[in-house]
């Protein structure tokens, strides 16, 4: 029975011919009625007026055809690690206050917090930089192998969700997603880099290569903290950024001096060859809280010796000169350089020049007027004069140091006194 029923149905369907539905005729009525319903046309007109008014009143939001923008648009098809339009737009908004201190972000637009990597962030300068970045609302990742850095320098951030601490040596590659990289990792005092010269130059060369490679891969802006030691024992005084230096390439300090010079070379090669956004800062003598005690640098040496009632050790005749900046001035300069549109290099230092004898007398006045001065033979390749010309930083970054040695030194002395006598484990 079922089979007969199926056959009768098949016969019916085979006898009927398939006739598709006719095509509907186009009519303007339906879309017009849709738009006119519920005052949709009014909302469209209001939106157009608001958008037009916003861009007329904010001409700075229009992308200018400068070199930076042309670099992004012309090479997007060939370079896979360019910053996207949104990040470029966001950076322009964030830089408005740097380029024009009186400018404000347009209504509804706020500075987007960055995700920032600080190598050597548990060190003296690095920890103060981390404080600054966290304070302004950024998320910070610190890489440090703790060769000269100390966890105590950043322990006050350990419970902060915006802060992350990773024990890592920059000689080994690492992959992180970040917007900016402050590359500070390297032993900076003679005691440390003379003790491990091969490790020092590997950090300067391989570590910088790894961080530049990371910047290229994720499209981050990269800032290299170089040093005034690239000028060596200079023939030019004060030293300008155009001076190429006078450095002994085979001396006991060359692992640091030539290492930093090579790091600058690598940074500029990545900029020219791989279009990485880079910044270069040449840091002059810096002092302040959290410096390593007994690290061989002159300010920390004098302060520690005076507090311990030991003679102040002056090498040579004491007539060699240095310029000393307080750490907060340096941090401000680094941040302004990173947020600017200028590559550098820039000298970041205090042009106030002191002989070693003058510095020893200032330390005596602050700590112990009865302290004695002891002269010893000078070390090899010790520069006779060191003073930055900061004209370039003044004109382009609108930066100059504000804290004098007389004002900053007592702040450092208080920190050293606490660490030496009250918290010896914090040395």
From TrEMBL:
It is found in: Golgi apparatus, Golgi stack membrane. The chain crosses the membrane at residues 40-57. The keyword Transmembrane applies. GO terms for cellular component: Golgi cisterna membrane. Its EC number is 4.1.1.35. The keyword Transmembrane helix applies. CDD domains: UGD_SDR_e. GO terms for molecular function: NAD+ binding; UDP-glucuronate decarboxylase activity. It is a single-pass type II membrane protein. Coiled coil: none annotated. Its cofactor is NAD(+). Pathway: Nucleotide-sugar biosynthesis; UDP-alpha-D-xylose biosynthesis; UDP-alpha-D-xylose from UDP-alpha-D-glucuronate: step 1/1. InterPro entries: NAD(P)-bd_dom (IPR016040), NAD(P)-bd_dom_sf (IPR036291), UXS-like (IPR044516). It is an enzyme of class 4 (lyase). Its main location: Golgi. Pfam families: GDP_Man_Dehyd (PF16363). Residues 117-410 form the NAD(P)-binding domain. Belongs to the NAD(P)-dependent epimerase/dehydratase family. UDP-glucuronic acid decarboxylase subfamily. PANTHER family: UDP-GLUCURONIC ACID DECARBOXYLASE 1, UDP-GLUCURONIC ACID DECARBOXYLASE-RELATED. Catalyzes the NAD-dependent decarboxylation of UDP-glucuronic acid to UDP-xylose. Necessary for the biosynthesis of the core tetrasaccharide in glycosaminoglycan biosynthesis. This is UDP-glucuronate decarboxylase. The lineage of its organism: Eukaryota, Viridiplantae, Streptophyta, Embryophyta, Tracheophyta.
